[in-house]
Every structure is written in structure tokens, then in C-alpha cells.
Amino acid sequence: MERFLYVHEIFPSFQGEGLLVGVPQVFIRLSGCNLRCSYCDTPEAWERVQACSVYGWRGEWEAVGNPLRAGMAAGIISSLWERGMHSVSLTGGEPLLQAEALTHLLQALEGKGMPIYLETNGTLGEELELVLPWIDWIAMDIKLPSSQGGEDISGRHGDFLARASGTKVILKVVITAGTGAEELERTCSILGGLGGGMPLVLQPVTPRRGEEGVAADRMAELYRIASGFFDDVRVIPQSHRAWGVR
Ligand code: SF4
């Protein structure tokens, strides 16, 4: 069994996206991703790196060579964990690419009072089943065709959500200037019936240098469309980018 993890960074911060924005967490950002979203804000996590960067609250930093034994990663997470924290965020890249090794990490964290929050692109359903017994929250991105070079992956999202039933799921879709009303409507019509009241967050993209943002009236139009399929729809931008923290 694979007990080693390729990790980009481990750090404490506040959740910057979605329904739980603002809760303190320890983040472990795993390396590797099976998608190449047009708006990706963590392309540095697409590839494995020689060393994992471990940060403290004041930005103090040390490098730990990759791959990390799962028990060592659990030890680093535990050293950064403080009373009152909400959960450990498994993020990436796409953490489920290392699902088997993650089971060892999750076993090592079991019983320590650290709920597990999985951030995922919602495409690896079989891998989800490996880790699901330890997962308390799933924050799943919905990827629209305009972010995937025109490919429609709503079928993979549907399969993923079917396997996630019984776990708390928060859905999020990043809205860019290129997001189409038709693709949002089609995807919401497929996924809206699956989730038994799952909340959906519409996240206006954080514009990078020279990029076009999303106007309020456009968000209102897309909100109306999504609300036709989901009971609980919110518009929440990234807070950590606005604040300028990790
Ligand atoms: S799934 Fe996430 S990490 Fe992967 S390319 Fe898309 S936005 Fe980036």
C-alpha cells in the first residue's frame, strides 16, 4: 500500500471560499491535478515538487523533502492544529489523485478531534469511495465546459455526487466573463436533482492582472438560473485573495 504523499504545502489559514468562508483550518495542499481549468489559481500545484513547504501563522517556513510518509504529514498537521480550529482541509491540485496514500494519513489523524474537509474537482468517484469513511465535508467544484476547453464533464460530477450521498456536500462553480448562461442552466439541471438540498456557491472569478471580472448584473442573471434548480444559492467571492493571504 502506498504510504507516501507528494505535498506542495501545509499551512494554517482561514477558509477563503464557499459556505464555510472564515473558519480556521490546517490546509494540506497535495500535488498533481487531472484537470487544467482555464481560471486555475494554483497551477504551481499541478506538478510534484522536491520539497513540501510548511508555514506557520507568521509566515515562518521550512522545507520537508517529498514524498512525505503519511505519518510524518499527520505529525506536521497536528503540530499546526490549535483548539478552536474547524477542520483539516485536503486541497490541491486534486487530492483524490493520491487517495490510497490519503487513507494512511486519515487513519493517522483519526481520533484526534480533527474533522476532515475535502476540496475536490468532483471527477474521481472511485477514489472518493476509498477516503469517504473519514470525510466530514466535501467542497466540490462544478466545472463548466467553458473552463474545460469545451468538454462537458457533468456526467463525471453526477457519478461523484451519487457516491458522496450521506456526506455534507457544498457545491461551487467559478463564474468568469466567459461563463455561458446555457451551460450553467444545463449543468444545474443535471446536478440540481441529485443532491437533496446541497447548497451551491457561485464564485465570481478573482480577476488576475488585466483580466475581465464579472459584473453584478451578470451574477444576478446567473443566480436566477441556478436558483431554478437549487434551493440554496449564494454568491461568495474568494476572501483570501482580497485579503492577500495564503
Ligand atoms: S481542478 Fe483545481 S487545481 Fe486542478 S486545474 Fe482546476 S482549478 Fe486548478
Please describe the structure with a list of short key phrases separated by commas or semicolons:
alpha/beta, 12 strands, TIM Barrel, two-stranded antiparallel ribbon
Please explain how this structure is put together.
With 246 residues, the chain is α/β, with parallel strands linked by helices. The protein has one domain: TIM Barrel. Helix content is 27%, strand content 24%. α6 links the parallel β11 (200-204) and β12 (233-235). It is globular and about 45 Å long. The relative contact order is 0.16. The structure holds iron/sulfur cluster. Iron/sulfur cluster binds next to loops.
Explain briefly what this protein structure is.
The protein is of the alpha/beta class and 246 residues long.
